[in-house]
Amino acid sequence: MDLTDRGVGKTLLIIGIHIEELRFGERVAEGAKELGIDVLRIEHGLSNDRFLYSNLFYHDTFLRELYLQTHMQIRGKYSIAIDLHTGFNQAGCCADVFCKETCVLDCLHCVLQNRLIGGSLLLKKVRLLKIVKNVAVRPKLADVSYLRCKTFIPETVWKGRHYHYVGLEIYLPRPGQESREDWLFARQLVKCIHECGKKLKRNKSNEIRGNCQGKPV
Ligand SMILES: [Zn+2]
Question: pTM for the complete prediction?
Answer without folding.
Answer: 0.89
